[in-house]
Amino acid sequence: MNTSVRRFPDGFLFGAATAAYQIEGAAFEDGRTASIWDAFAREPGAVLNGETGDVACDHYHRYADDVRLMGELGLQAYRFSTSWARVRPDGGAVNPAGLAFYDRLVDELLAGGIVPWLTLYHWDLPQALEEKGGWTSRDTAERFVEYALSVHDALGDRVQHWTTLNEPWCSSFLSYTAGVHAPGRVGIEDGMLAAHHLLLAHGRTVQALRERDPRLDLGITLNLTVADPADARDPADVDAARRIDGQFNRWFLDPVLRGAYPADVVSDIREVDPIAVRRWAAAIHEGDLDTIAAPLDCLGVNYYHGELLSGTPQPGSAGTPHDGGVEGENVRRTRSPFPAADDVHWVERGLPRTGMDWEVQPEGLTRLLRRLGTEYAPGLPLYVTENGAAYDDEVEGARVADPATGVRTGGLVHDAERAMFLREHVAATYDAIEEGVDVRGYFAWSLLDNYEWSWGYGKRFGIVRVDYDTQERIVKDSGREYARIIAARAV
Ligand code: PNW
């Protein structure tokens, strides 16, 4: 690891990220109807404490203040997602009032000199489409293209950077196989079908947007890991690492960048559930993989942690870090999101852990970027589109209510661990650039504390604290640290 000052190249973008359902609130305003998350959050036991995104950070009403805050932090780019159920309620006709929100947001960003970085799908499928089969239905991919084109109709004159999907692994295997994310379905076949139709939606959208405007910058964001064998000489450990790499990384990287699903993983799953694999294979039409592999302008990488794997059961092992769900009495049990990994075990290696119990492993990010830049996508610009950590923040200071308004102001949030996490991962990103990997940006997850899916408001990832009673925003120490890094363009 490099220890001298790391100065980022001109043009490297520093930003922060959010997602529609996690921050917007205003869940049923201006014509928006339910998404699968509105429905799922209302199912008993689906989300910790039954919390919903009904209000969240109330960003729908406070977006102008939030953009001002981004300016104060010095953010150069802002990654956000549009809500399908706002733009096309129930997946049907275009809702001008819903689109108008994103129109205002984009104008506000541009006026503040902040580059809008738009994601079309961050997990909030209209519930009406789920009721017609959701992502297990091929038709959903067609509906998605219509939705994408309607967002482009409204914003294409001002938005250059378009990401089709955020983390299709989560919206397929975590959602349709493990049942811990919306819509909470369980089964290998449903997860495999969902993944294929999500990727098809991605490819068709890339083709359609490209045809409309060849100047757009088009990409997809994948959540990727670094899966290491506990003992590189133990074939069972090597095989455990292969399975996790295969089901998590290669299941998406291979079709998107090479036009084929990984054969080893297909045969692993066939051993567990041959009928599921047969039905999935029948759902792949001729030409689908060419569509899915439509050329891209960049690849978005979400990195939180790596993992150490063994083929041998581990005493007292905590289990997969990819549960995405919550342990506890009021929360439903999950199935593994890895259909063919019963013989995979996670090994404790004594690294520090975040509030999600995820390991802190910055050098894993350097290795991941190197692998993508050499093995998978030489020449394809990479962006770290999410990286961050949940911690219990220490709030200090005179948080006195203004007698006139009742609004509490002031206060400091000390989150030294998050500040350190960001600094180390920005440095790890730089180390990849220095090796020659074409990494063009880094987005902190997240701008604001927000709705952390099945954890409700129980986990805070923000560099800005949100008081959910008053909606007050307080820049955390990590936010100030990130602002300093951006101002210096160095770490
Ligand atoms: C990502 N896993 O989610 C999402 O893109 C964000 O919306 C989310 O808030 C953030 O990371 C923090 O969790 C993930 O189980 C959720 O491996 C779960 C997993 C990975 C990513």
TrEMBL record:
Residue ranges of the region described as Disordered: 312-333
The reply to whether Hydrolase figures as a keyword in the UniProt entry is yes
Keyword field: Glycosidase, Hydrolase
Active site (UniProt): E386 (nucleophile)
Q: Is the keyword Hydrolase assigned to this protein?
A: yes
Query: What PROSITE patterns has UniProt attached to this entry?
Result: GLYCOSYL_HYDROL_F1_1, GLYCOSYL_HYDROL_F1_2
Tell me the Gene Ontology biological-process terms attached to this UniProt entry.
carbohydrate catabolic process
MF-aspect GO terms: beta-glucosidase activity
Record-listed E.C. numbers: 3.2.1.21
What Pfam families is this protein classified in?
Glyco_hydro_1
Task: Name a GO CC annotation attached to this entry.
Answer: cytosol
What family classification does the UniProt entry report for this protein?
Answer: Belongs to the glycosyl hydrolase 1 family.
From the Swiss-Prot or TrEMBL record, give the protein name: beta-glucosidase
Gene name as annotated: bglA_2
